[in-house]
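Please fill in the sequence for the structure shown.

STRUCTURE ENCODING:
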């Protein structure tokens, strides 16, 4: 018996409802995978710090008040200690040193006002009278600051020729 297959009554369509749903799902997944991401916004970088020469009066405003950075000097080097604002800024245990030459106070382990130079327009503290242990303590502090903070300048006396070159 030569019975050929009966002709199909309807053709299979690729556009069946389940295929259309799966295709729409595939397009949605591709869209969410390839869509442009919202642009990444970077925070504004801090202003660049320029190495400069400070005198005691020009260093004084850098005490953390009025949104100023916190600088202090140790052995003639001026450090930006703003990251340690809780220690060196207003209300911190070392706040007396902010905007000042902290060399003698750090060397002697004293945070008292009398460790600071009174006359900002006078000569810098020559650190006379410090013993070997105090010099060693100050050098230790200086090394710690160099590891942790940026050196932003150097401290010179008011009448120093380098101070007048910078217009300080």
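FILLED IN BY: designer on duty
SEQUENCE:
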């Amino acid at each position: 018996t030569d019975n050929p297959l009966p002709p199909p009554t309807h053709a299979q369509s690729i556009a069946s409802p389940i295929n259309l749903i799966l295709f729409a799902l595939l397009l949605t997944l591709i869209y969410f995978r390839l869509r442009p991401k919202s642009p990444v916004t970077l925070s504004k970088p801090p202003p660049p710090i320029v190495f400069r020469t400070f005198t005691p009066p020009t260093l004084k405003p850098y005490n953390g008040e009025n949104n100023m950075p916190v600088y202090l000097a140790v052995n003639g080097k001026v450090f930006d200690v703003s990251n340690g604002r809780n220690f060196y800024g207003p209300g911190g245990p070392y706040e007396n040193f902010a905007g000042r030459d902290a060399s003698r106070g750090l060397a002697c382990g004293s945070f008292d006002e009398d460790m600071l130079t009174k006359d900002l327009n006078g000569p810098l503290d020559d650190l006379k009278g410090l013993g070997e242990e105090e010099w060693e303590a100050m050098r230790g502090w200086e090394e710690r600051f160099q590891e942790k903070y940026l050196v932003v300048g150097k401290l010179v006396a008011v009448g120093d020729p380098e101070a007048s070159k910078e217009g300080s």
